[in-house]
Amino acid sequence: MNKPSDSGQADISTQLSDNLAMMKEIFANCSDITILPWHYGPDLKYSSISVYYDTLVQKKEHNYFKETLQDLVTEQVGPGTSILPEKLFTFYENDGASAQSAFVLYSMDQAVIDVLNGHIVIFFDMWDKALSYKAMGVEKRQVTEPTTEPVVLGPKESTIEDLDKNIGMLRMRLKSTKFKIEIFAVESETKTQVAYGYLEGAVLPEVFSEFKQKIDGLQSGEILETSYIEELIEGSSLNPFPQCRYTERPDVAVAELLNGKIIVMVDGTGSILICPATFTELLQSSEDYYQRTLIASLIRLMRYIAFFIALMLPSVYIALSTFHTELIPTVLLLAILNSREGIPFPAIFEALIMELSFELLREAGVRLPRPVGSAVSIVGALVVGEASINAGVASPILVIIVALTGIASFSLPQFNFAVALRILRFPLMVFSAFLGGYGLMIALLLMWLLLAHMRTLGQPYMSPLAPFKPKLLSDVLIRAPLQTMLRSPRQLQLKKRRS
């Protein structure tokens, strides 16, 4: 039941004609708004109007409400009773609720917001309140397999663009009264609903306190997608490293809640934001916990190798081929020199041209329609690579290096983390071109200092590597057996504090 409004809100008039005029003024020039007058009671002598958007509500809901209105009141005040205004008003003012989730509204502002949210709002003559009930009928995407986080083992369902259903899928997996969900609507033209959840007793109080301070800034502003919230939570928008994770898997969100994380959801988008995220967590995948320990550990180690390849391989090639040829085995050096014979560009320009071409092909494959995009990205890479070699613009060894770098970046589970490596790869190449291996070491040192300095919601970004916490290393480079990791959220919180 909605509570009475603040004094600053417009009151609902007892005169139906005044409410009708106000609704027509507010929703003027809206072709899909319906303001439907209808009558009830003995001889249909009492008037009322229904206000709703045709494009948002189910058409059958309004007729269903009118047909069952007599039954609802009869059940409360006795058989054979006609629907009289006094009895109807008393019924709903005394917290009466129908099967259609009816609420009493106390202000015109509340009535307008409910209409915008897909409710049917009913005004009755001689009543200074209104009746609202949910009747949303917009078609939404059905629950399908995850598209960005596919797994061989594990659940095969993903979140959708319906906030209520997403919360329901989380509740189905985490049946605990300590799982708290708080929902608020931003004060903007969109009136977007934002929800954040946490597990009481698992999340660190200082993390939650800082999160609350930052999320309070969302009370006003246009929020259309979960990523809008990420920039508010993170420390610096210019930092390439992501400080939050995204998932569309309910099982991943529940697992992170048990680990003391906070999740954020926005109505109208299927992505769940997980914060805070540390460096090592961005290299973990949900399937690491569905495979056996040995297999999961090997795959995770391969992922760390892919991280270094995606970040450093072109830079290492430039440094070795330009400054440190003595470190290359003689046979390989001769092969590289032979392949570079006739190339008119230095190694840095050659690498930049091929990397930029690969990035353009990758973006083209993403932006084009799916049936065409995959063909363009694959065929385009083959054609560009072969043509570059034949034209003497690029050497075969560099084409292989760029291809390996791209494949390594594809193997990283978090897309936003892979994008950060794509950005950092270019300054590392420039440092290597000017100072060789020393330049690469300087660039890596600067990057390490940035990572060590970073904090996300007050937590060290490189934890448990910096500061070093040996007791928390069981789920970093390898995945320890589950029997050593399965602990209650409270035990995990105490373990983090002690270490």
From TrEMBL:
InterPro entries: Spore_Ger (IPR004995), UPF0353/GerABKA_families (IPR050768). One of its GO terms (cellular component) is membrane. The chain crosses the membrane at residues 301-323, 397-421, 428-451. It comes from the Bacteria. Belongs to the GerABKA family. The keyword Transmembrane helix applies. One of its GO terms (biological process) is spore germination. This is Spore germination protein. Keywords: Membrane, Transmembrane, Transmembrane helix. It holds the Pfam family GerA. It comes from Paenibacillus rigui.
